[in-house]
Fold each of these.
Amino acid sequence: MAAPKKGRSASAQSRPGRSLALILIAIAALTGGMFVSGHPTPRLGIDLAGGTSITLTAKNEPGQPNAINKTNMDTAVDIMNRRVNGLGVSEAEVQTQGSDNIIVNIPKGTNSKQAREQVGTTAKLYFRPVLATEVSGPDASASPSPSASSSSSDKATDKASSSSSPSSSTTPSATATSQGRAVTDALKADSTPSASSSASSSASSSASPSPSSSVDPATAKLEAEYTALDCTDKAVRAKAGDGAKPTDPTVACGKNSSGQWQKYILGPAEVSGTDIKKAGAVFDTQSAAGWKVTMEFTSGGSKKFASITGKLAQNQPPQNQFAIVLDGEVVSDPRVDQSLSGNAEISGSFSQTEAQDLANMLKYGALPLTFKESSVTTVTAALGGEQLHAGLIAGAIGLGLVIIYLVVYYRGLSLIAIASLMVSAMLTYVIMALLGPTIGFALNLPAVCGAIVAIGITADSFIVFFERIRDEIREGRSLRPAVERAWPRARRTILVSDFVSFLAAAVLFIVTVGKVQGFAFTLGLTTLLDVVVVFLFTKPLMTILARKKFFANGHSWSGLDPKRLGAKPPLRRTRRPSAPVDTKEA
């Protein structure tokens, strides 16, 4: 059994070129990917590259005079930070200023318009039953209704339906009045109208108008708002449904599949965004809808969704539809044919970015307050540039001192250490450049400090390995067996040391926020790269050089001279004197 093991070990030792080829191929591939991505340099943080500073001011909601408080402001900061800085390394900063302001700093290179939408959008989502709808604007006489769609995990039919549209013999206002009377009776009966009530109310309204005295003032006001609502007017559209509570019916606007604005009367909210457990953006390969947003409900939300869809399935169009309302705007109004449960989807000709942004907002939750932009200013990087210059000088001095120490103390071995440091630096730079467009990583001053600290961690791994080799030479072994015997012992020490450093970086990343996360992220990244470089570059290179005469013969400048190291002479076995033999007994 011993012979095959020795053969395998010899085979592994004789092919260190494979490991070197692997890491060189990886460097070449990553470098090529960096240039192909169009980002040959790391993305810099706001302290190094400047950026945009946005001031958001909280607004009081009707009926909620004390909504602006420290708890809600802190919650809003947390949600905004997760939206624009989900992984903690994009270098966007969100912090409060005073009692009702939030400052958002976005580094240069980030899509500022997209980020402004991310932080400013309240993202309040409600599922409301549709009571009445028609195309809004001057061309409302003959237009199709919205055709947004939704689906569920049990594949029930909930395709887009044709909403009630004004006919050629009926004016929009007359249709709205007729629908309004139907809505009046529906609201009196139940927040979710039934088929019978809808039909009877429609018949009674067509036969003889109800006296105005029988109409509830709130309902009459809602009907008037609906009649006067012109969704093609941006200012009017922005105020549609202002002040309406989730438990109240309201009016809203939304675009249909033809790009025309549709107006709605919606019942009280049956399901809200807080009932959503997960949300994600996926590409729909089975239809031409493109990107869509999938939602997974909580157990309570799934029951609510099944209940409301079960009621709506009994109604006639358009009261068998429910509207998915995001921040007061209808983004989809699917028709329901049976009770649904499980997951839901929002489709509306989204681009990939729009779908991901919407899923991001739904996933991290709605803001507890409504905000308006007070100011948007440009931040310069003058101070950060000076600090970066000073930091780079400090890093260069530290690296120079490390190299001088390696050359003086380890002599020829310092070539291996310097080459390993160069490979580690190259990998760090390329990966940082690739992480910018991939996860939004931004290099800030603390991250630069983390990279400088990593120089010492990487150099420490080389020193451990070199000292183990020297210990074996001091025991009287030649270089090649000394390298192979020293590696297992050095490997354990290196792994334990790097594990402790990585664990510290991980804990620091989890428990901190802001710029400190950049330091922790860079420290953890460079610690992992240290393991890769030592295993795939330093050890194979040492194995190859151990075969060269300069190192194998212990040249005085190799750093492995047995005399300078105080090596012991090779151990030799001596024969023990044999015991005297009694000739008589023999």
Amino acid sequence: MAHAHMTDDARLSSLTSWYADWKGVKVAVLGLSVTGFSVADTLAELGADVLVVTESASQEYARLLPVIGVRAWTGSLDTVPGDLVDFAPEVVIASPGFAPHHPVISWAQETGIPLWGDVELAWRVRDKVTRADGSPADWVLVTGTNGKTTTTRMAATMLVAAGLRAAPVGNIGTPVLDAVRDPAGFDVLVVELSSHQLWYLGLQRGPQPVSPAASVCLNLADDHLEWHGWFEAYRDAKAHVYDHTRIACVYNKSDEATRRMVEDAEVVEGARAIGFDLGVPGPSDMGVVDGIVVDRAFLDDRRTSALELTTLADLDARGLGAPHVVSNILAAAALARAVGAPPAAVRDALTAFTLDPHRIEVVAAEAGITWVDDSKATNPHAAASSLAAYPGAVWVVGGQLKGVDITGLVAERGPAVKAAILIGADRADLVAAFERHAPAVPVFEVASDDTEEVMARVVELAAGVAADGDVVLLAPAAASFDQFSSYADRGRRFADAVKDRLARGSQGDHDAQPVPGDI
């Protein structure tokens, strides 16, 4: 398919400021979710000629587009719409949901049209609101298979405690473009990036690519393979978080893949590699010594001394003592310290910090049984961290596995659980994994597809096998969309079912017996 209007590379290369001449630039925006709308709204404000192409649109966004002067085409994107071809965009800006193999993405690449994500656009126009010295806000980038949101929130909280104007943005919820256009302005933006956003960032060809002050990939494990196609593509996308980092590339010493990413990264001369793990830190690392969380990276005398940030006892008292949470704290502290937060700010921030709902959240503790909602554990790596924090739990697991092999997790953690309660569309894979790797563990299936029934039955089964001192842990290791609207919906329904059962008392309790296809 021929492209009717070849891109003016020189013009796009000049678009590196809010105050550049964006008027009349022909931009196709793919998707109209919160990210897509932020892109369209920004471009309309800049005076670009915008066409939104989407399969669907909420009533609110559909109503707002004509108000801001943006046209929209809505329909099936199984093939490239003729209206998009006729529009002849100079650049296509895609929402993160558009995978590399999507027909419209393939068309843009085959015809040589530059592809941006919302993050690249935000970087180009980040100077709309500047700091007192005239410079735009620093960016700190956070990615990883698990822990992104917690680490992003923690780092932003630490920076605010240091007296800086900082905000958590990006994949966490608030689009980066909304933040760069906020008239109040910021000193630092802590940007959570998904592998989807980083794939688009890896396509950058502009003269001023995204160059964060500090960056981290927290960990790497199989996830989103249905989007990327294979693990190596997922890994390569994650690695772009370190591109052009200026001050600190923070990596997980216990995850060799993140170390290799830093070693291979093209960074600004002078950028340092800062490692973290739960062991004793070397110089330029963050770690733990005799129960004290310490910084051996951001002090002059780091070869012979360290700075105390907090203690494991204090973290445990605040519900932040799980090993994977402590790892997130170390990473967030490294990022915050890299851009100037003093140790006292790190300590003060942690005093008031609480985890988001559905992240190892204790929803009830009664009759000696603790019920824990970690519905956010949507992949095996996250579930392994939860099971490490609660060994011997009654494990509620299952959902959509997203093409990920579950056998490694069951082989590693399955034999130690007291029982397993299986939910979701991909239960057969879990049944086979337990039969092979943990045959002695009692396994119960909840076969109901009725969203209203699933968690009530889960709780009934769990109550039948849990005893005094036990933990019932919802750590699904899978996506939720087969039975629930989101991981949050799944977690809420679990918590509601627990509270409903406790309110009714233990009437009718009996010892559960493992049966195939329980409902």
Amino acid sequence: MLMANLYVGQSGLQTSQNALNTTAHNMSNVDTEGYTRQQVSQGTRAYQTLEKKNEQISWKQIGTGVNYNHCKQVRSEFLDISYRQESGRLAFYDVSVKALEEIEDQLQEMNGSEFADSLNNLWVSIQELAKDPCSAVNQSSMVTRANEFLTRAKSVYEGLVSYQENMDSTVETMVENINNYGDRIRQLNEDIVEIESGRQEKANDLRDERNVLLDKLGEYGKIEYMEDIFGNVTVLFEGSSFVTTDHVNHIGIDRTLESPVGYATPYWEYAAKSEYDKDGNKVIVSIDGGHLYDLTQTVSTTINTDIGKLKSVLLARGDHNATYHDIVEDQDYYNKNISQSVIMNIQAEFDQMIHAVMTKINEIMENSESNPAYLDETVGLPSDFTLFVVANEGDRITYDFNKEKPAGTVETGFTIMNAQVNPKLLMDPTLFTFRKIDGEEDNTTMTLLKEAFTKEEYVLNPNVTTRNSFVTYYNSLVSQVANSGDVYKSIQEAQQQTVDAVASGREQIVGVSSDEELEFMIMFQNAYNASSRYINVVSEMLEHLVTTLGA
């Protein structure tokens, strides 16, 4: 019996030593990112039965020591799921806020060189021209201000396009990161299963790395995952199978089939339709049914369509450079494809304003009694003497609005990038004299031009009822951006608080407390010392018995 008690002490020594090693491992990783606190699970070894009597309440048994069951991670599955979802939602609104801040910069409202100045200067020049329509100075001033107005408009629009392209350049990097995370998770699955298959130890450090990757993956999009009994984690990304037990479904990038300007469109490679060319190379011919996202869905927290920075970038960027056509051609098309993209929405509304200004001024000048073509039919058509002209008459839009108007059937017309000030008037601003055939000043035309700037008949988009004039339209546009920015900023701040609260709760569970670990270290050291003293006592008893019996 005493010999058996030696094994009791030995089990205490071994278990305490393992617990001390685990505690030391925790202490050495206090500042390690993603590290999960490890905890020793102890249990009793099988009891030794000495006597069985049915009339007794229990059998006569003695313990054989303590057993080191396993070393487990201390995590909360609920908090992990919450953190990955909420951090993905925060990343979504981070992108939206940054996009709106950039748009405010592009609208020239923060650096002192505002587009509003050029619009106001054009309006002032028309007012001055109305005072003396036949003044060569005033006529030249209007043409100069019109050219300045259009140049500034092009600068703003090009800035928006440039930011679109910058956002587009990040898409491919994001997709590459997502694929790399998936490949690494699958490799970690294999390593974890191999280590844990013997049921002797847990691959806790590898599990930590896998959890960090799941955290990062959650920032890019909506994920769902499940761990099977063998230790494999399978992952769904945006509702589609991403990481399975034996492979990873990679995400590809298309730049030719979907976007008319070559913007990156992510798609599932396994769902794309491909063919082989004459050289034996695989060519993607269609990604219908393989889209990673349906970007026409309403963005809503209720249905979790506002998660992930990749989706937010794609929404903010859009798939083309929007123009006034995106607003006026089809309201349903606008609501589904344009309104949710902060950049395309501003592009379309801004282009609509410039288009309206140019079209209205041209309409008045073309029908004016003082148009040179009405004074002398040999000089050309009335449309030859308008203030603005289309730069490329044959230019047509390359994207579909609806089934009735397929791509390439609608002329681009007066857009910001397809317009210029009439070269004839740039060469000779006095060519349009604003003097009627009877020699009188054309005050009627001047009255119409002034009314064009002050008449409130323009709305920002089909979903807004407030009407603006040319003078107030731009201010309304900037106010809309500012208001949207405030809304997204408040959502972002609230979401940041949510993420911080969940992260704090999770850290209280998975994080390592040096004070707590020191307490455990003292406790296990005392247990080790107690086991050592226990063995010494048993050893002394055995020695005493042997010595006594021997005597």
